[in-house]
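It is worth pausing here to work through a concrete case rather than discussing structure prediction in the abstract. The textbook approach is simple: state the sequence, then state the predicted structure, then interpret. We follow exactly that order.
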Amino acid sequence: MIKTPRLYLTRLTKKDLENIHRKNCYSEVAKFNTIGIPKHLEETKQFLQPLFEPQNPEKGVQLCWSIRLKKK
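Step two, the predicted structure:
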């Protein structure tokens, strides 16, 4: 985890799946992402699944971070 005075940066986990899906369903967000608006949660899960699995550096490493505001 990386901490700044205002943010937490952590590796993406399966716990983030529903929040990511919900945000990707907004048309304002979808126009900037490459997958468009997912039809259902399972579609989002299939797209993100490689990021949840152990990484193999020999095949390249994919990292995805969750960025959250610290609560005041």
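Step three, interpretation. The chain has one domain: 2-69. The chain is about 35% helix and 15% strand.
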